[in-house]
Design a protein that fits this description.
The protein is an alpha+beta fold. About 45% of the residues lie in helices and about 10% in strands.
Amino acid sequence: DYSPVSVEERCFGCVYMLFNMGVTAYIIGTASSLSTKGDDERATYRRLLKDLNQYAKATSLPPELFESMKQYVGMQMSPQHLASTFEENLPSFLSARARNQRNRPILSKIALLAGSDMSVSNGKEEPSQSGSVSGGVDARPPSNRFLTALTARMSEAVLINGVRVFEEYDIAQDLWVITSGKAEVLVHDKQGVERCVKTYERLDMLGAFSFF
């Protein structure tokens, strides 16, 4: 058993005790914060599932569509969806600028939009370049005003494998840009078996013809 004898030893013992108390309080507080955050996320997920179940019952949702919605809700709880979720809470003039700054590098790599000057210097847009006109078709690239409006409304979506983005004869309401993974175009042959006739890779667009 060791006990302080001198004044210096007593002071050291007090400081050491206070240090241990501070470290212990920090550890307990951090653990409580992490567990509370996890509970909040799980509570949000459970609330979304409850709303989805009520919606499915009220609308007689087909089981296949219900499962797709359920899996989509689960995927949106991933950290990759954080940026778009945060931007939805901002006023439009802030969210538009944030999305424009974040999404323009993606659009600048897309072949259909590559003819436009997508660069941003010191927060200001550079003038767009003019294209040529050949055979009576206007080949000029999209204007920066159009691209700014397009990027200001972009958001991320994490999709599960096998989800159907478009069905046959659908009219595209959204323009999809693949940033990771791939998408397949499936058709039914004479025997009714689905076969892949085209594959879209990274930075390809889905629904571009119908959208524009």
